[in-house]
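Figure 3 (text version): structure tokens given as input.
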């Protein structure tokens, strides 16, 4: 008996989804380690001020923040970044609901 999978055309989609998941994981790991979300919550909203607060290169911070924006963890208007509501609650180190430490543990 033929299964549904035998009748479907092969596609590389599953492999690209896995790679995208890895990219998102590494971006989240970097953002948490650098305290990007906390920096934005403290009022550092441009790539330059976030980079200064996080002691990181501005170009790298901009690239990371743009990636996080594309994936919904941040928002961006002009050159200013803001936290998405769930990021503000769970990824700002000053929030009582902060889960960044747990995420870092899971990714270690």
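Below: residues designed for each position.
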């Amino acid at each position: 008996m033929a299964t549904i999978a035998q009748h479907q055309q092969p596609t590389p989609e599953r492999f690209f989804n896995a790679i995208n998941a890895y990219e998102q994981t590494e971006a989240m790991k970097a953002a948490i380690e650098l305290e990007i979300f906390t920096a934005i919550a403290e009022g550092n909203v441009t790539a330059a001020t976030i980079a200064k607060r996080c002691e990181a290169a501005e170009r790298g911070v901009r690239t990371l923040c743009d990636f996080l924006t594309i994936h919904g963890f941040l928002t961006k208007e002009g050159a200013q970044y803001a936290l998405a509501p769930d990021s503000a609650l769970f990824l700002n180190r000053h929030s009582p609901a902060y889960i960044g430490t747990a995420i870092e543990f899971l990714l270690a």
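The chain has a mean pLDDT of 95.
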